[in-house]
Write a structure and sequence with these properties.
This is Maturase K. There is one protein chain. With about 40 residues, the chain is mainly alpha-helical. It has 1 helix and no strands. About 90% of the residues lie in helices and about 0% in strands. The protein is rod-shaped.
Length: about 40
């Protein structure tokens, strides 16, 4: 197994997960604000 390939793969997966996390965190904050207004 090529180490550099594995590292590139890991990096892209981590970046994707991080983007997803940021996306869901933003939605969660927006939902929290909506519930506080009710």
């Amino acid at each position: 197994m090529d180490t550099s390939f594995t590292q590139i793969l890991l990096n892209s997966v981590l970046k994707h997960l991080f983007k997803q996390h940021v996306y869901y965190a933003a939605i969660f904050k927006r939902l929290n604000r909506v519930y506080k207004d009710i």
